[in-house]
């Protein structure tokens, strides 16, 4: 129910803001607006103060909306109202009215990101666990417990890193721009400052997926190698392990963090059979050796070892918030970055350099909406801002049926001095409808594939 309500709220806010952008600028340009509709199909609610005023409606299918304006191309217009018809407005005014919807979405995203920055987010501190073996991070010299203090694309202009999500965002930007990521790191106590360079420029043309993230190899949040809940009668309990035990070493290998300990457990099989490990453990100030025999478990297509105990202490959490001006500026910056990255992804999908799996539909949006609501108001505002940016950018694409397609018509009119012919409009609209249907089908099929675990 939470997921459904969050999805409906997300669509409602974004549709209303988008259409209000068209509506408000149309009114400012003197265009008579006949109907402001949220949704399509059968009308389930309507309001109109008088027959000459705008009719506001809520329809049964809430997957979009529209603003219907007085227009001589759609029917006869009384002589006294011709000056209020959309088609009789100047090219500049028509362009402003069409562009106002996507711009409203982008302005909303700035405000939402700013609100999230002002409220603050509780996020893992940018202290990293063990890097993936043979990854860019390991080759750059990253170690378990490294605290990333700042990042830079050129090693000159540095940006503070206040949390792990901020570090991942800087990594995403570096990949999208084909740049290396320079990092300033210290130990967990802020000592031993040093600069490292992740060679992400070499991965510029690759798709950002799980495989690419493994190549980069930045660890998750640092977690102490301490045991949590131990399952009764499981391998850990049989070995004498208890919640709160700190693991110092396994088979003589010093354990630096929980990620390393989990990897040791997973790789504890010998030709598919569990291998007994010698654990050096600290408990209540005393050190002891325990023999641990994992069990075999299936992880996808491979077999791994498990001890049936929770491994790792909770990572350190910090509250990330910003003042009024800085929060707003970061909202502008994030909106710009998400917009440019979205355009790059669309472009790469068009020429076949990025997978069409990047397209998401209503099922995925609903799922993420529900997840973000459960995490808190700030997370939901950030999610809503991201979807608002995507909607704004999508509508600016030069495809018939979208606002960007109409803007292309006006660009042609501005260059040639004459509007696009009715014949071309008819066939472009048909092509646009086919393209939109294809995109929606792909997005929905991707949603179903993700739901079934195929992506």
**CATH-defined architecture of the domain at 124-222:** Roll
Helix content: 40-55%
Under CATH, the topology of the domain at 124-222 can be stated as Pdz3 Domain
> What structural category do the secondary elements indicate?
alpha+beta
Give the strand order, joined by hyphens, for the main sheet: 5-4-6-7
Give the H and E element order. Answer: HEEHEHEEHEEHEHEEHEEEEEEEEHHHHH
Helix segment tally: 12
Which whole number gives the mean pLDDT?
86
Unreliable runs, pLDDT <50, ≥5 residues? none
Kindly report the name of the CATH homologous superfamily of the domain at 124-222: PDZ domain
Q: Kindly estimate the percentage of residues that lie in beta strands according to DSSP.
A: 15-25%
Oligomer: single chain
Describe this structure in words.
InterPro entries: PDZ, PDZ_6, PDZ_sf, Pept_M50_Zn, Peptidase_M50. One of its GO terms (molecular function) is metal ion binding. Among the domains are: about 125-220, Pdz3 Domain; about 225-310, PDZ domain (Pdz3 Domain, Roll), CATH 2.30.42.10. It has 12 helices and 18 strands. α1 (about 1-30) runs antiparallel to α2 (about 90-120) and α2 runs antiparallel to α10 (about 375-395). By secondary structure, the protein is α+β, with helices and mostly antiparallel strands. The radius of gyration is 28 Å and the shape is elongated. The mean pLDDT is about 85. The two termini are about 25 Å apart. The protein has helices at about 1-30, 90-120, 135-140, 165-175, 210-215, 235-240, 260-265, 325-350, 360-375, 375-395, 405-415, 420-450, and strands at about 35-45, 55-70, 120-125, 145-150, 160, 180-185, 195-200, 225-230, 245-250, 255, 270, 275, 275-285, 285-290, 295-300, 300-305, 310, 315-320. The strands form 7 sheets. The chain has a 4-stranded antiparallel beta sheet.
């Amino acid at each position: 129910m939470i997921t459904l309500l969050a999805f409906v709220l997300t669509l409602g806010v974004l549709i209303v803001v988008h259409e209000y952008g068209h509506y408000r600028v149309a009114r400012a340009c003197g265009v008579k607006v006949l109907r402001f509709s949220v949704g399509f199909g059968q009308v389930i609610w309507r309001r109109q103060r008088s027959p000459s005023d705008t009719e506001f409606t809520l329809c049964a299918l809430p997957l979009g909306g529209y603003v219907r304006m007085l227009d001589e191309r759609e029917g006869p217009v009384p002589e006294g109202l011709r000056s209020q018809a959309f088609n009789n407005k100047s090219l500049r005014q028509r362009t402003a009215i069409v562009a106002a919807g996507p711009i409203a979405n982008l302005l909303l995203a700035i405000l939402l990101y700013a609100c999230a920055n002002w409220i603050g987010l509780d996020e893992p501190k940018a202290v990293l666990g063990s890097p993936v073996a043979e990854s860019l991070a390991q080759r750059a010299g990253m170690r378990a417990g490294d605290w990333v203090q700042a990042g830079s694309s050129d090693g000159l202009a540095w940006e503070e890193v206040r949390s792990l999500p901020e570090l991942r965002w800087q990594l995403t930007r570096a990949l999208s721009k084909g740049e290396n990521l320079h990092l300033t790191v210290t130990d967990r106590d802020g000592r031993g400052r040093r600069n490292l360079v992740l060679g992400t420029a070499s991965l510029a043309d690759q798709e950002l997926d799980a495989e690419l993230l493994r190549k980069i190899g930045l660890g998750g949040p640092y977690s102490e190698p301490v045991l949590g809940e131990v399952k009764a009668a499981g391998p850990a309990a049989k070995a004498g392990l208890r919640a709160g035990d700190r693991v110092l070493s396994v088979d003589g290998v010093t354990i630096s963090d929980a990620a390393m300990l989990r990897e040791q457990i997973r790789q504890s099989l010998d030709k598919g059979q569990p291998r007994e490990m010698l654990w050096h453990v600290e408990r209540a100030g005393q050190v002891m050796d325990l023999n641990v025999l994992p069990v075999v478990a299936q992880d996808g297509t491979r077999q791994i070892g498990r001890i049936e105990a929770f491994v790792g202490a909770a990572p350190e959490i910090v509250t990330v918030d910003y003042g009024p001006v800085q929060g707003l500026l970061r909202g502008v910056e994030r909106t710009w970055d998400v917009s440019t990255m979205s355009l790059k992804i669309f472009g790469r999908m068009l020429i076949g350099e990025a997978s069409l799996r990047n397209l998401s539909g209503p099922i995925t949006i609903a799922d993420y909406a529900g997840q973000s609501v459960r995490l808190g108001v700030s997370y939901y505002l950030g999610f809503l801002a991201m979807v608002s940016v995507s909607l704004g950018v999508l509508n600016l694409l030069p495809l018939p049926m979208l606002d960007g397609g109409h803007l292309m018509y006006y660009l042609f009119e501005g260059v040639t001095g004459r509007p696009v012919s009715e014949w071309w409009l008819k066939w472009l609209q048909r092509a646009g409808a086919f393209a939109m249907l294809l995109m929606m089908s792909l997005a929905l099929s991707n949603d179903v594939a993700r739901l079934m675990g195929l992506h």
